[in-house]
Amino acid sequence: MAAVTRRRVVAGVRRRLGHYARRLREATPRRLAGWEESATTPAGGQPGEITVATVAELHRHVVRAEPTSVAELRVAVERWQAPRPGWSGRLGPLPGLLTHQITLPRGGTGRARVAVTLADPVPLHRVVAAVLDALRPPTALPLPGAPDLAVDGELPGWLTPAAVTRVPAGPEPGDAPVRPYDLRLLPAGADTPAETPDGRLNVPAPRLTGEPTGVRDASGGSVVLVDAGTANPVGRNRYGAKMPTGTLRLLDRDGTLRWQVTTGADDHVVVAGRVGDPLDGRQSGVLKELAAVVLAGGAGTGPAVAATVAQLAMTGLLVHAPDLPAEAAALLGPELAELTAAAPPAPDADPVDRELASIRQRRAALRGHATGLVLPRVTDGYPTLARPPSVTALLMTRRPERLVTALRDLAGQSYPELEVVVGLHGVELPPAVAAAVADCPLPVQVVPVAGDVVFGEALSEVTRYARGTLVTKVDDDDRYGVEHVWDLVLARHYSGGTVVGKGAEFVYLEPRDLTVRRRMGSEMYDAVVAGGTMLLSRGDLEAVGGWRPVNRSIDRALLDRVLDAGGLVYRTHGFGFLYTRHGEGHTWDPGLDYFVQNPLRQWTGLPPHETFGTA
Question: Where is this region: Disordered (predicted)?
Fold first, then answer.
């Protein structure tokens, strides 16, 4: 109990300090420093050594390294930072592990070291993937099925090392009881004969042609892919009117395509990188200090331009591409191409409009180009694996009259794999509500639970009926915009949070007919999210012990279990979720005055923005 109390106090102090830091940055913007390339220092031989500045640079080092195997590896990250104080990861699985040592800095910031010794050499990318699990949260989405991927030659920057399970050394053996891989990525122009397996049950694995910016699909068209674990809005600041806008250019430097962002009349270079490489921590840090970039003319093919635009948009940086080449626009798809072609709101525009423009862009970029979501779609051999993870919305209620609006919000969700389990806690459905349940286009199960069962136990019973890989808790009196579930799944993917959710940032006070926007950070690891937005995998929920059989603070109890087990809680942006206070039936009730203390903004009535489903 003392540890839980201490964690809550520390989390509260961090939130207040974060608010002050953001307000200070907005009030006193600084000129960004000139960009300097960092060095990655590998030492050859056995044992291997890799020294990098940030965790993401370790990922990039593997992309550029020659395929090799190691039995020993020592990794040093000079500027490591824990996602939140007290977090430590776990070394990923490795065959023949003899010893390993993880040394993290006290306080969560500083030099981190990982040393691994194996019985036999293992491909470098696989060892680094295990080391990365100890230094940052894994971002793979939970799925009921996925192909083993093999890559010939150099690993592309849009793949995480953990995504590659086997690198083939030759043709696929035809008589193996289980083929060694299910999908093979070949470099462009590779002259590799097709497998002709003799085994009756072994069919050849599908193939894709890899490119620095993605793959070519079965029809020969390019598909742009970006690693969402390195290109994402984690840590994205609010949009202050004084945040700088830069100019984005693509340049050909000795046959290598690079991108750079400049600011000011003197074209001061503030950040740059190689097209197709994953972003490192330094690049991400600078991009989050910029409000927007405008794409200017320059070098680069359609795939290179599209990959750069998608990658930067995924970070939450507003990208304006008024003269986007037609080939690049086609590769981005109509939604992202349209959003980047439109001029973003001016720096002095309503800050809400600027935030929403960023959210729309990054949502479109992630849905259309995040490798973990898109690569399965372009693999013809496994059409059923192209679906995103299924989600079950858990909707407990003692107020069945509120189900009509709640089900309408859920039925309007854009997420394609969604079902609802309604728990009737000591109540029955009135005929009109029963008709609304029957008319809902989503699969809906109704589970009656006796009224004398405590709320946490009732929620556990309802969860038994969930068929989704992911489960999300929904409250009957809150409002949800059409992209709400997609926002949660995307955040789960790029953050690696065990639990993801939104904050109670936008609050509708029904007795006063007033909506307030509270001062609350977003796109950050924290200890708190709104209970009516929590999303986590069914497996993670059960691994920590599920819901506690308590009658109040059910959500807080689960978050504490997750944090105590070493998991992470991630809070994405608050748009699309309207927390409602109506004066009765709340399991946590600090009073209405609590929510109007020093608000960032307020509206009479419901907020006039389509994203909440209230406009």
Answer: 189-220
